[in-house]
Amino acid sequence: FSIDAHNGTITTIKPLDREKMSWYNLTVKATEAKTSNQVSKVPAYIQVLDINDNAPEFPQRYKTYVCETAKAGQLIQTISAVDKDNPVEGHHFYFSLAPEDINNSNFTIRDNQDNTAAILTRRNG
Question: Cα separation of 71 and 106, whole Å?
Fold first, then answer.
């Protein structure tokens, strides 16, 4: 950070990243120009607000097994996602099959609308 010596404006001198550092605690000092022993200090607490600059990630690699006699609609795995961002209203992820898998006749995704999704069998084994 940089402080303008004439008007006290605090500005950034490099980009900020809330995921790396969310708070900065600075001490700002004012000194009389003619009498350097006349000094005052004040703390300045700076909170870095988040922007949505990170994509959702899966916290693990999923390896799922399904029996060949599975019934249609059978739950075979629940998956979840995480995000490094910290939105005020919380995370709201939407799950769907990738475009190349939409026509897969064996499995489907059900978005549970709680940041998880179910992988289901689409037809009997």
Answer: 11
